Amino acid sequence: MSDSLDHYLEQRLSTVRDAGLWRRTRILDGPQRPEQVIDGHRVIAFCSNDYLGLAGDPAVAAAARKALDQYGVGAGAAHLINGHTRAHEELEQALAHFTGRARALVFSTGYMANLALVQALVGRHDTVFEDRLNHASLIDAVRLSGARSQRYRHAEPAHLRERLEKAPATGQRLIVTDGVFSMDGDIAPLPELAALAREYNAWLMVDDAHGLSVLGDTGGGSCQYFGLGSDDVPILMGTLGKGFGTAGAFVAGSERLIETLIQTARPYIYTTAMPAALAAATLASVHIAASAHDRREHLQNLLRRLGDGLDRLGLPHPPPLTPIQPVTLGTATRASAVAERLFEAGFLVPAIRPPTVPEGEARLRITLSAAHTQTQVDALLQALERALDQT
Ligand SMILES: *Cc1c(COP(=O)(O)O)cnc(C)c1O
């Protein structure tokens, strides 16, 4: 029995290895910040999603420490039993306020929030319209919901319209998109999607994992960037492990939307609440994020500097509006080789390869944080130029 399992697993693993797609974890010592020690190497990291530099922020850590003393470590039970502390409640209120929605509900991870949300909204007789480059958790959520999936070409409202035209007249229609695309760094055309949702009587859901806290005057994300409110985007999901620098996720929307999740969403009901200390730390980070104008401005300055530098090197990149600035290099082998050179030079920039991105579009996924300095960005550009020359 165990022989046949080993044999089977070995075959699966060789397929990955032979395709040059082997992945491995590196070990980080110390907090998440640009200067770090990973696998024993001192590097400057350009890969975290800690866009505002809050993951290692002393005020956020202090809030966690204080709540640890008050609540202990484990939540002990699901929200609907007795795991929902005052810290969770305050965080949900703060997130509703932050996003300008009536109510918010916290989840332990973004993956779960997406599973919960899509399953609560649609089932077998419904149709979901998905951007082709949506995050894996959204794609899985739609699969699990059993709804019919219709993928439209990336950020192309015209193609979405065609799909909507041809959709069955019966059942609900849900349009689902990333706000900022996690591997491409561009912003979804939300005003056009909201207009189409209205025209075709569909609901619009935005996963703004990479937009919230970063885009908009008060960090309200891609909705705020476009000046859209809850009438345009009634279903908003955000994660807490990226710009907010902690962990977990939330859904924000109407009273009825949130109550429906509480009453029906299995990934909400059948899981232990996040630790209260994490909720308290996140509450602190949400307050910082709301007024983090300096951090956002510094980040935008760094992005312009990086964009100009990439232009000088003749490297295509998305408009430098979001902290995700991928540089597409083609084959997985080439992207890995450049990433390896950069690592040797003291820069951690991951190569993103298929199946995370389409075949032939392997890339370096450079991300910037408000915790980076201009000097670090300049040094990265120099190292990148050298690495490309040598590859
Ligand atoms: C990271 C991410 C998620 C998953 O969130 P986790 O809290 O890390 O599970 C969902 N959607 C998008 C777009 C993401 O980038």
TrEMBL record:
What InterPro entries does the entry give?
Aminotrans_II_pyridoxalP_BS, Aminotransferase_I/II_large, AON_synthase_class-II, AONS_Archaea/Proteobacteria, AONS_Proteobacteria, PyrdxlP-dep_Trfase, PyrdxlP-dep_Trfase_major, PyrdxlP-dep_Trfase_small
Q: Name one Pfam family in it.
A: Aminotran_1_2
Keywords tagged on the record: Biotin biosynthesis, Pyridoxal phosphate, Transferase
Where does the chain bind pyridoxal 5'-phosphate? 110-111, 182, 210, 239
Q: Which pathway does it operate in?
A: Cofactor biosynthesis; biotin biosynthesis
Recorded catalytic activity of this chain's protein: 6-carboxyhexanoyl-[ACP] + L-alanine + H(+) = (8S)-8-amino-7-oxononanoate + holo-[ACP] + CO2
Q: What class of enzyme is it?
A: transferase
Q: Which residues carry this modification: N6-(pyridoxal phosphate)lysine?
A: 242
Q: Aminotransferase class I/classII large domain spans which residues?
A: 43-384
Report the EC number(s), separated by commas if there are several: 2.3.1.47
The residues that the entry says bind substrate are 23, 135, 356
Q: Which residues form the signal peptide?
A: none
Gene Ontology MF: a single term: pyridoxal phosphate binding
Q: Which GO terms describe its biological process?
A: biotin biosynthetic process
Needs which cofactor? pyridoxal 5'-phosphate
Query: Which NCBIfam families does this entry report, sorted A to Z?
Result: bioF
How it assembles, according to the record, is: Homodimer.
Q: What does this protein do?
A: Catalyzes the decarboxylative condensation of pimeloyl-[acyl-carrier protein] and L-alanine to produce 8-amino-7-oxononanoate (AON), [acyl-carrier protein], and carbon dioxide.
Describe the family membership recorded for this protein in Swiss-Prot or TrEMBL: Belongs to the class-II pyridoxal-phosphate-dependent aminotransferase family. BioF subfamily.
Write the protein's name. Answer: 8-amino-7-oxononanoate synthase
